[in-house]
Amino acid sequence: MGGHGGFIWSSWGIAFVVLAILIGVSLKSMRARERELARMEAEMPRRRRRRNGQSKTDAAADGSQ
Amino acid sequence: MTRKRRRLTVVFLSGLLLVTAAALVLTAFEDSIVFFHTPTDLATKKDLQIDRRLRVGGIVKKKSWNKQADGLTHAFLVTDLTHEVRVSYKGIIPDLFREGQGVVVEGHLQPDGSFHADEVLAKHDENYMPKEVADALKKSGQWKGEGEN
Amino acid sequence: MLHRFANPTRFLKMSNAVLPWATGLTVIFIGSGLYFAFGASPADYQQGETVRIMYVHVPSAWMAMFAYAFIAVASAVGLIWKHPVAHVCALASAPIGACFTLICLTTGSLWGKPMWGTWWVWDARLTSVLVLFFLYLGFIALANAFDDATRGEKASAILALVGAVNLPIIKFSVDWWNTLHQPASVTKIGMPAVHFSMLTPLLLMAVGFTMLFVVLVIVRARAVLEERRINALRSARIHADTAQNVA
Question: Residues B74-111, buried b or exposed e (16+ Cβ, 10 A)?
Answer without folding.
Answer: bebbbbbeeebbbbbbeeebbbbbbbebbbbbbbebee
